[in-house]
Design a protein that fits this description.
The complex is a heterodimer. Chain A is an alpha/beta fold. Among the domains of chain A are: about 160 residues, Aconitase, domain 3 (2-Layer Sandwich); about 150 residues, Aconitase, domain 3, CATH 3.30.499.10. Chain A has 16 helices and 18 strands. In chain A, helix 6 packs parallel to helix 8. Chain A is globular, with a radius of gyration of 21 Å. Chain B is of the alpha/beta class. Chain B has a 7-stranded mixed sheet with strand order 4-3-2-1-5-6-7, covered by helices on one side. In chain B, helix 4 links the parallel strand 2 and strand 3. Chain B is globular, with a radius of gyration of 15 Å. The chains are: A alpha/beta, B alpha/beta. Chains A and B meet through helix 2, helix 3 and helix 5 of A and helix 5 and helix 8 of B.
């Protein structure tokens, strides 16, 4: 019987059972991830279950990224619970401040994600890893604890909704705009409980960073996961990651260390949904006319083209997060901010998602551009995105952010506002102090 | 198990940031979280409700983050059950896992008025509105999930499963 990529991954993890959409399965997990907010509860529950040791210390990943470096005593105490557990259980993938990055940027960068893996994380944006053709979904702390204890998790195998993107993208239109457009079309519960499969000629040409941005926000449409079939871009990302990691450790011949083997290529390519797989629904979007988008408060589905927004003043601009804190996002922001200044009434906060991205941005001179423009550059943290720390809004203030949620009170006071966009619009808005199309602050391509 | 209490009505897409704001996620103490439940929608909510009262909401209740602090906060402030048109996926799992009673009902939320006195029989999946004698149908849990619900949550379910294996 024909299967979707999601059904294939579940079939491979459910002990030989043929997993089809709608089936309940108990599936083995390849990674079970927690952070400093969610893991302390999981550790508590793990102990209440009477469990002594985690199922596999190489498959438990702990990233203290939300409130670290600790913002207050309570956060420090939570981080300590995580740290102590990691030492006690000899967890391989625990990332201390200085090595830590925002989890959903960090795991792909550390080579932990590859096609066909089944990943759960006690963080809703775990769905990011679907960009690398893994089935990845957010769970709560108790589910995470049970996975640490048993190595598995129960799932209802989701139906798949397929999104086919056709056309040619305009300048400044990115993966962020594609996913905002999608959420705007189907609503914040438009893919409730479903796997969202992104495909079509536009996706085939989309960079891995932008694919990660798209899969990241599947949850914002209620999706259980976002997923993209593996292709040459996927293989190239994995090869580059392996080479970088090999270079770090100085191990082996670098070229050989990087290559995706013929066996891997064959196995991973076979994951793609069969031609006659059953989808719950198929959407076909022609995105040729799409312009940069902004999601207005207080739902990610409240999407408007930037050119239709007039005189929307902003007090703060946030560029970063698990959604848009990767090197290509910073390059876009730097291209716009280069030689310019942030508006005097605006705070512009830029936070590279990981230490490696931070370093790369430093080597490429991007940080110099940001600081010269009077932006601040922060250590990797989830802080401002969820109103945790490092950029909280006061009553009545408005931010434009490259983050993922604009709910009531998301970035601070209950009467503050968050607008969501890609890095180009956010950077342009930092210069003018109101929500701005990038073309308004930068010369058209090919001119001058 | 039965719940009885007054209905507190909320709209569609009530998200986890509204249920418990991130500024309180530096703890997972049930009482402390409960004191801030629904704060950004109604700062007085935890003080207004009586133990056993029931949240009645529209579609996609609990959307947003995976924070288990959300169902913990609802439990911690004394709410006995959440009835909604539909639930966001992670919240749904979390509520079942920690033993916060939840019921999905397509018809009930629109028909229940604010402050109506409700009596809920969880085993039967039955809601009786004592304000007007109406009864509302609810969605039944799939058998697999009912097993976890019957155990009182995932911890007990895992323990039972481990015993069966041993």
């Amino acid at each position: 019987m024909a299967k979707t990529i999601t059904e294939k991954i579940f079939s491979a993890h459910a002990g030989g059972a043929r997993a089809s959409a709608g089936d309940f399965v108990y599936a083995a997990v390849d990674i079970a991830l927690g952070n400093d907010i969610t893991a302390p509860i999981a550790i508590d529950q793990f102990e209440k279950m009477g469990a002594k040791t985690v199922f596999d210390r190489d498959k438990v990943v702990l990233v203290p990224d939300h409130f670290l470096p600790a913002k207050d005593i309570k956060s420090a105490m939570q981080a300590k619970i995580l740290r102590d557990f990691a030492r006690r259980q000899k967890i391989t993938h625990y990332y201390e401040v200085g090595r830590m990055g925002i989890e959903h940027a960090l795991l792909p960068e550390r080579g932990m994600v590859s096609p066909g893996k089944l990943i759960i994380g006690a963080d809703s944006h775990t769905c990011t890893y679907g960009a690398l053709a893994a089935f990845a979904t957010g769970v709560g702390s108790t589910d995470l604890a049970a996975a640490w204890a048993t190595g598995g998790c129960w799932f209802k195998v989701p139906e798949t909704v397929r999104f086919v993107f056709r056309g040619k993208l305009n300048r400044w239109v990115s993966g962020k705009d594609l996913i905002l457009y999608t959420i705007g079309q189907i609503g914040v519960d438009g893919a409730l409980y479903k796997a969202m499969e992104f495909c079509g000629p536009v996706i085939e040409r989309l960079s891995m960073d932008e694919r990660l941005t798209m899969a990241n926000m599947a949850i914002e449409a209620g999706g259980k996961s976002g997923i993209i079939a593996p292709d040459e871009i996927t293989f190239e990302f994995i090869e580059q990651t392996r080479r970088r990691l090999a270079a770090e450790t100085g191990a082996g011949k670098l070229k050989k260390a990087g290559a995706v083997s013929a066996e891997e290529r064959k196995r991973w390519s076979a994951l793609a949904s069969d031609a006659d797989a059953v989808y719950e629904q198929v959407y076909e979007f022609d995105v040729t006319a799409l312009e940069p988008l902004v999601a207005l408060p207080h739902l990610p589905s409240n999407v408007k083209p930037v050119s239709r927004l007039k005189k929307m003043r902003v007090d703060q601009v946030v560029i970063g997060s698990c959604t848009n804190g990767r090197i290509s996002d910073l390059r876009v922001a730097a291209k716009i901010l280069k030689g310019k200044k942030v508006h005097p009434e605006v705070r512009c906060i830029i936070f590279p998602a990981t230490q490696a991205i931070y370093r790369q941005a430093m080597q490429e001179g991007l940080l110099d551009i940001f600081v010269s423009a009077h932006a601040v550059v922060s250590t990797p943290t989830c802080g401002p995105c969820l109103g945790g720390h490092m950029g909280i809004l006061a009553k009545g203030e408005r931010a434009i952010a490259t983050t993922n949620r604009n709910f009531v009170g998301r970035m601070g006071h209950a009467e503050s506002e968050v607008c969501l966009s890609g890095p180009a619009v956010a950077a342009a808005s930092a210069i003018t102090g109101r929500i701005t199309h990038p073309d308004a602050v930068i010369e058209p391509a090919g001119v001058g | 198990m039965k719940c009885k209490g007054r209905a507190w009505k909320f709209g569609d897409n009530i998200n986890t940031d509204e249920i418990i704001a991130a500024r309180y996620l530096n703890t997972f103490d049930e009482k402390e979280l409960g004191a801030h439940c629904m704060e950004d929608i109604d700062p007085e909510f935890p003080k207004k409700i009586a133990r056993g009262d029931i949240i009645v909401a529209g579609k996609n209740f609990g959307c947003g983050s995976s924070r288990e602090h959300a169902p913990i906060a609802i439990k911690g402030c004394g709410i006995s059950c959440v009835v909604a048109e539909s639930f966001a996926r992670i919240f749904y799992r979390n509520a079942i896992n920690i033993g916060l009673p939840i019921l999905a009902s397509r018809e009930a939320p629109a028909l229940i008025g604010a402050q109506d006195l409700l009596e809920i029989d969880l085993a039967q999946g039955r809601i009786i509105n004592q304000a007007n004698g109406s009864r509302y149908a609810t969605d039944t849990f799939p058998p697999f999930m009912q097993e976890i619900v019957d155990c009182g949550g995932l911890i007990a379910w895992v323990k039972k499963r481990r015993l069966q294996r041993a």
